[in-house]
Design brief:
Strand order of the largest sheet: 1-2-3
Structural class: mainly alpha
Order of helices and strands: HHHHHEEEHEEHHHHHHHHHEEEH
Number of strands: 8
Largest sheet: 3 strands, antiparallel
Number of helices: 16
Helix content: 55-70%
Amino acid sequence: MATVEPHTAPSTRRPSRRAEAGLLVLALVIGIGAYASVGFGLQDALPDDFVVHSLVLVVLAVGAHVVLRIKAPYADQVILPVVVALNGIGLAMIGRIAIGGSLVGSPSDLASKQLMWTVLGVVAACGVVWLLKDHRTLRKYSYTAMIVGLVLVVLPLLPVIGRNINGARIWVNIAGMSLQPAEFAKIAFAIFFAGYLVTNRDTLALAGPKVLGLQLPRLRDLGPLVIVWAASLAVLIFERDLGTSLLFFGLFVAMLYIATERFSWVAIGLSMFAVGAVVAASAFPHVQARVDVWLNPLAPEIFGRDPGGSGQLVGGMFGLANGGLTGTGWGQGYPRLVPYAYSDFIYTSLGEELGLAGLLAILVMYLVLVERGLRTAIGVRDGFGKLLAGGLAFVMAWQLFVVIGGITRIIPLTGLTMPFVAQGGSSLLANWLVVGLLLRISDNARRPSSLPVRGQVAPSQAATGPTTGSQPVAVGAGSQVAVEAGEASAVVGPSRGAPSQDLPTQVVRTDRPQDGGDPMTGATEIIDDTERKNL
C-alpha cells in the first residue's frame, strides 16, 4: 500500500522571459549591424534609411516580446529571436541589392516593401498569439481548412486574377497587389492534415502485407495518400510549380509518418512521387526543360535557351564559388549578375558575400528554429497539437531543403524562397503566421496545469493503489479517486455520498512513458464531455 502525499498547487509564477529579451538584443545587433555593414561596404556611409530601418526592427521586436509576456508567457523563448535574426539578415541583403543595383528585375524600393511586409508579418503573428487562446480550437475547422487550402491552390488558375510569371502560374493579382496563395495554403493543409490524421491514425497504422521486409499498410488505407499525390501532380502539371508540388506532398507524407510511426508510408510516398515526376517529365515539355537545366546546366544549347535556359543557375553556382570560405564581405560581391538574386537566388547572394562560414551560421539558425518546433511538438499534450507543430516545423525545414537543393543541383530548380530571408510578401507573411502558431502551441505545452498531476490528489483526498501503470486522478469538489492499474483514464464525478450536482464529467489522463506520454513531464490532459465527443 502506498500513501499519496497531499496535493500541493503548482507554482503560478509567470516566467520573466529575460532569456528571450537577451537573445532579441543579439538578434537586433545581427540584423541592424548587417545593414550598417552594407552601407559602409557600398558607399562608406550608413544607408539613407538606416535610422528608420533600425527603429522599425526594434519596435517590432519589443512589441512582439511584450505580447508574448502578456498572452503567452510560457511560450518558447528561442523561436522569436531566431526569426528576428533571419528576417534582419534578409532585409540587409535585399537592401544591399537595392542600393547596389541589379541588372535584372531589381526595383529600387525592394527594401522598403520587404520592411512593410515584415511589419505585417509580425503583427499577424502577434494577432495569432493574442486571439487564439487554445490551438485545439483549430481542430473543429479541419475540413474548413481543407476547403480554404484547395480554393487558394486553384485561385491562380482563374482567368481574371491568375497571373503567369516566369512560366509558373502561381500568382494572383488583387487590387494591384500580387500574392502567392500557395504560401497560405500550406498552413491550411497542415491544419487539415493534423485534424484528419489524429482522427484516423489508428486505422492508417494497421499493418498490411509484408514485401521485401517492409511492412506495408492495407490497400484500403491508401486512398488519402493517392488523393494528395494526384493533387500535387496536378499542381506540377497545370500550375507548372514543382516547388509547391513537393511542399504539399512532402508535408502530408511527413505528418502521416508522425501519426503512424510507419516508415512504409514514407517509402510509398517517395516512390509514388518519383514515378509521377518521371511520367510528367516525359509527357510535358515544361517539366522536361526543368530536368534538362538540372542535369546539364553548362551545355551550350541549354545555357543559351530563352526562355528556360540555365543562365540563372550557372550564375548562382559561380557566385557561391566566388564567395569561398569567408566571402567577399557585405557590398563587395556581384549579386547583380544573377537574375532575381533578392528572391529565388538570395542564397547565392549570401554565399558570395558571407562565404561558406556565413551560410553555415544561417543554416544553424534554421536548424535551431526547426528543433524548437519539434521540441514543441514533443512537449504538447494533445495529439492534434503534436501533429500540427510537427507539421509546421517540418514544412519550414522542407521548404529550405527544396530551395537550397535546387540551387546546389541536388534536385531540379524550384520557385520557392528561403523562409524569412528572401524577398516576397506572401512567403514572409505566411511564415510569420507559422511562427505565431508555434508560439501559441509552445505556450500551451509549457503552461503548468492548475489540476493535480501524476502522484497528486485533491487536498481532502488520499488514495492507495498500485504504483505501476497509469494512475488516473480525480479532480473537483466531492470527487472520488479511481485508481486502476493499466488504465489510461478515469471518469471523474461526484463521490458516493456527495450532494447531487449537475457537473460535467471529466476524464483526467496522466500519461506514463509506456503509454506514449512525455517521459520528461508526465503530461496531464483534461478532457471534458464536449471534447470527448470530438475524439
